[in-house]
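Just curious. Invent one:
>
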Amino acid sequence: MAGDDPMVPVDVLGVRQLGDQEVVVLLLDARSGLVVPIAIGPREATAIASAQAGVVPPRPMTHDLLRDVLRATGVVLESTEVVALRDGVFFAELALSNGERVDSRASDAIALAVRTGAPVLCAAEVVARAGVEVVDDAGAREVERFRSFLDGVEPEDFGP
């Protein structure tokens, strides 16, 4: 699915609950000052937030299992790439050290990248189409407030 669109590195700011139902993961393209919000489910939010917080579950969760399977087979996740946005759906791929690319939901790919330390990249076109500016003082304060929120967030804060 990867095309000729240039990829840009993004920082995973973390997850945030908007309103009563919607949960998003926020990806920051520091060069453009744009944040790409991707709607995700509560389980994926918990997977991302717990990994960012360094929480180690007593038994491996699905993303931990996938990380461990990759490690056991000697394959490294080189990068997670958000490659497209079609009809409101973000498409991602896992770029593996054996040259293979695996189609993935963006939320699962990000959860795996956070666990492995792999870089997260986003197609420049996706950033341009879905990104929201945070270059003003209010936006910068919001990003800082969100980073402070992440310091105290617990996986349980996102429900079951």
Notes: The radius of gyration is 15 Å.
